[in-house]
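hey can u run this one w/ NAP bound, need the structure tokens asap thx
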Amino acid sequence: MNAPAKGPINLESYVCGAWVRGSGTPKPLADAATGETVALIDSTGLDFRAALDWGRETGGPALRAMTIHERALMLKALGLKLMEMKEEFYALSTATGATRSDGWIDIEGGIGTLLSYASRARRELPNRHLLLDGDPEPLSRDDSFSAQHILSPLEGVAVHINAYNFPIWGMLEKIAPNLIAGMPAIVKPASQTAYLTEAMVRRIIESGLLPPGALQLICGGVGDLLDHLGGQDVVTFTGSAVTGRRLKAHPNIVENATRFTMEADSLNAAVLGLDAGPQTPEFDLFVREVAREMTAKAGQKCTAIRRVIVPRNHVQAVAEALEARFARTPLGNPAADGVRMGPLASLAQREEVRARIIDLSAEAEIVAGDPGAVTLASGDAEAGGFLNPVLLHCERPDTASAVHEVEAFGPVATLMPYDTVEEAVALTRRGKGSLVSSVFTDDAGFARAAVLGMAPFHGRVMIGNRDSAKSSTGHGSPLAVLVHGGPGRAGGGEELGGMRALKHYMQRSAVQGTPRLLDHVAGRWMPGGPTHDDGVHPFRKSLAELEIGDQIVTPARTVTLDDIERFAKFTGDTFYAHMDEAAARANPFFEGRVAHGYLVVSFAAGLFVDPAPGPVLANYGIDNLRFLTPVNPGDTLRVQLTCKEINPRENADYGEVRWDCSVANQDGEVVAQYDVLTMVAKDAG
Ligand code: NAP
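ok here u go:
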């Protein structure tokens, strides 16, 4: 890998299976701390239309030919490989202004997100080519016409336009879901820090783990790329609201209704509870969190706390505590020892942040830090984008506007006083939609009122208190399993959120038809679908032999009062409805003593299980269990067990089988309905 010490890196784009350099005059990219040129960037002359076609015609089909588990295993291998190389990325990351802990969020946080998707997808999703969304919808009385929502991968390209602050995480958190969904990507990192993204993409391509066309990279401008997008493509944008709005309104994107996900700026807030005065653990946690959010990545995080909302009588104490923390956070060249806060990404970014502080100063006074003078632990204050933390105080946040609208994308936040929880909530909502806000309180009533008031305006709300002090992942960390995005001002987009994220790259279709054909399309048996009983108990069949629709209908078994009493005694469950005739009759649901629901489930297993050793290895649970009709002594039960879904595992010699289990009484009324989940060997041997 090129290292900055060897001179500027001539960045290349990776399109149509080749690394190419632009034909124009490259733009120099400066080291955030030293100002030295790290890299040169240019994408002039690239054939953007061909890149889209390469993704659509080569990457897409290759990915769609793989199952979801195969794609997930591919990402796992990739994540492990990248993790082995992490020190190379850290070495380059310093030039972006990142300290080691800033780099950790970007590099290991990014690779961790990839690995999280790889693992969750195999745990939570079937090993198939498409996903089912929800249960079948019966549309006829006789089960001859039903519907199933399915999700299939879009056949275009996911174009990811990213911000400069997380050159690695920003790419990986976006490509993980699109690759597992079966869609190829073109990544366009922000120019300022594109050398780090480029370095990682080189390693990804070298690994040979992704099929050709699955990932392309544009270093530099996107030229006429947007002019060639269609309705099967997706654009995700992370950056400033101004750019985002412009791109979203691109005529071609509007005309083709190209999906556009926007993650823009956000005036995130942290609220200190009315109960959380100095001397409480919540006060200390709050101060630590605000200071960390202001200084990590030099405040260049989309989730950073910009508005610090504090009970009026504690404003002074919070300001002093924050100032003390800033004093313990040395600013300097992140390559130097002992530095805990790095510079902004560039000198231009520092000028931008200083200009925004001037905007904020119209409504707020600076109470800590001096935007004009830099105090450094190491480095040259004028060579890099150094800026010490700046804390402002706005006395009348209820009538102010700039403090709720102007995002200074650096180590800057504004303190705001409040008197009641309603006022605190109202202030958070003045941000017109944010990615995240947090509440620090140990008072359940305050937490409830604050969170319910804030939730409609936020993609994520974190409650901080003494119990979670050690385990909390913090205000500013988007997690792979939680949604990231916010309404309104924050862009209205949504990313991550575990498997929810895949759906942004898939089309949801309602498929209607007769269950016999729908079963085949969806790969899942549904009521009304064909069943077969060839005389072989389905538990005697390996995955290779089993088919969806394989069914047994068991002999009947009568439930006696003695069964109920023995079950009650054996399990200790002597709930009155099973034991006391008069009390059971008084219950609005029963006409007398009833069997335990778990007795019904246990008897059902006794009826459908084939006991000898064989391909069925284990029962690992039950889904969607419902007791639909009471079972009284004398009722006779019969079970219909139907193979519903078969999921062979990619890297094991067994897989999961889901069985539809319907227990009915002598009148044909269903008394219990559920899915039985089993592990079954792939081969009979
Ligand atoms: P930006 O200037 O809006 O740029 C964002 C991206 O858009 C960059 O890749 C940029 O490329 C590209 N771009 C700019 N003009 C374009 C055009 N006409 N066509 C296609 N692409 C274009 O934002 P930034 O300065 O990089 O990032 C800082 C902002 O991002 C902050 O406001 C921050 O709040 C926001 N942000 C939001 C999130 C989130 O998740 N919500 C995360 C991080 C950052 P070039 O660099 O090559 O110009």
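DSSP finds 19 helices and 28 strands in the chain. anyway lmk if its weird
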